[in-house]
């Protein structure tokens, strides 16, 4: 019988793929791959597996979500097992939930294989723990992508005094930082942005909230980056001390 999996590929470094993800990939007849998935991960797929890239990088349009689901259903109905490979964890800002719902609506059970999410791995890659007894009683994962009615309530988030880990936050960083400052978050709050975390091209910036936007712009940090705001960001290792594994 054909099977369907939603697999987290981890944040970038192929060694941060789980054993279960690697083992499952080797069972798939078809692998549908998102942006942000390190292509090295495909070494675990079978040589004869059909690999389909559905991401939007490399100047191509991303495949619309309904089309991805339709593709999965076609393969499954034809008796082929399908692995849907997503960056990080499939259920953290990866639309994995939507894909699961669509497959369930078609009567198909999809197995979820968790991955290490960038929101934890990227801060960790520069020595930032997302929680720490002295700094934050909790951590909030939030998308910076929303605007208008989808905008997060930054004032409410600032009031929690918890670590803010922002995914997809670079394009609207200016607005987000403005909103936090207007919500009386102290201008000297430590911040960090980590680009391409756990990959050889990893880079990061650390600054206080008031200088953060300017420093990120100076360093020309872009996507994909994770933004960390809160006391824990002061625990980042000094740049000079960063050793590659
Ligand atoms: N499901 C993924 C997140 C997908 S949303 C996960 O669990 O990690 C895409 C966003 O994730 C990017 O805009 C960026 O904010 C973040 N991201 C993914 N991989 C990253 C990496 N290697 N370094 C920094 N940020 C990353």
TrEMBL record:
Keywords, sorted A to Z:
Cobalamin biosynthesis, Methyltransferase, Porphyrin biosynthesis, S-adenosyl-L-methionine, Transferase
Task: State which pathway it belongs to.
Answer: Cofactor biosynthesis; adenosylcobalamin biosynthesis; precorrin-2 from uroporphyrinogen III: step 1/1; Porphyrin-containing compound metabolism; siroheme biosynthesis; precorrin-2 from uroporphyrinogen III: step 1/1
GO MF entry, a single one: uroporphyrin-III C-methyltransferase activity
What highest taxon heads this organism's lineage? Bacteria
**Gene3D superfamilies assigned to the protein according to its UniProt record, in alphabetical order:** Cobalt-precorrin-4 Transmethylase, Domain 1, Methyltransferase, Cobalt-precorrin-4 Transmethylase, Domain 2
Q: Which parts of the sequence belong to the Tetrapyrrole methylase domain?
A: 5-212
Please state the Enzyme Commission number of this protein: 2.1.1.107
UniProt xrefs under Pfam families: TP_methylase (PF00590)
Q: Which stretches are transmembrane?
A: none
Q: Per the record's keyword annotation, is Transferase included, yes or no?
A: yes
- What's an example Gene Ontology biological process for this entry? cobalamin biosynthetic process
Q: What family does this belong to?
A: Belongs to the precorrin methyltransferase family.
Q: What is this protein called?
A: uroporphyrinogen-III C-methyltransferase
Name of the gene encoding the protein in the UniProt record:
cobA
